[in-house]
Design a protein that fits this description.
The protein has two domains: 46 residues, no CATH class; 40 residues, no CATH class. The longest helix is centred in the middle third of the chain and has 17 residues. 32% of the residues lie in helices and 13% in strands.
Amino acid sequence: APKLVSAAMVASMKPGSVIVDLAVERGGNVEGAVPGQVVTTANGVKIVGHLNVPGRVAASASLLYARNLFAFVETLVDKTTKTLAINRDDDLVKATMLTD
């Protein structure tokens, strides 16, 4: 993973700041991140390197995915007739429609 947050950037942050490196398992995006550990720098910045973050929030992630999927499918149904009614002018439909 590319380093997106340098040591100089971390050093410039205020004490008590928290950085969560979601790419720590693939080399990390934050300089100073350690897989499986929470590191506190000399200037008081915490760098969180938790492993398997999706697994830590699986129930919340599943609920959020279900809500988003329902909201998308709901836009494809006419609420009055309860039939399929694809609005091809909808921005989300345009972005996700593979064929017409």
